[in-house]
Amino acid sequence: MLRALSTSIGALDAASELDVDRSDADRSFFLTEKATLQLLFDDVFAADQSLTKHLLLTTQGLQARVLVGDAVLDRGVRAAKARMKLELKTSTMPQGADHVFPSDISDIVDAERRVEPGLVLQVVARFPQVPDFQGKAALESDLTGRATRQTANFTGRDAGEVSEHAIDGRLTQSIAHASDGLYRLEKRLLERFPRDKVYVRAFFLDVAPARKKAAADPAVGVAGTGTQG
Known about the structure:
Elements: H1 2-18, H2 24-87, H3 96-100, H4 106-109, H5 116-125, H6 136-192, H7 197-201
């Protein structure tokens, strides 16, 4: 749409200066239409820039927080189980780490990222069921913090997606208004120059697909007829 608008803006500007066959009223018409399209261009451009900026600096940033948070949470889970296993080795419950954590830690660290914080908090809820050891409270607090922060990362990403849809909606509206503006311009040009449709077409971006060239075939006399020479 930006290319379409800029094409028409440039054509209107060129016509106002170069078309010596037009009247002063025609030149005034061209400049007025150019100003109208410039406003539409500025609106679409601003909306497009806003969406691009959001995608690059907000959406990407929020996704990065989820990915880094997942790595930090995985590391904390592995370290916590290893620490608990070591501390409870000589306790009355030497298998306590496998009671609090899954026997296969990949059940947590390889789980769906959005689900993992909840699984970690379930692990924390079982901490009171094993004997106390030095640093147990700190370990519990550390895991809780990592899981809670990762949950917040997902909440932030979800909020960012809501904002993205709102910005995208504004861009869609701007494009629709611009499309209507180009349609109205075409009608006004055709009304003003009804016998010069080729001239009017020069004011708009050509979006028609390129015609396919007929393959050079010595057995075909006239392209598309199948007549042999």
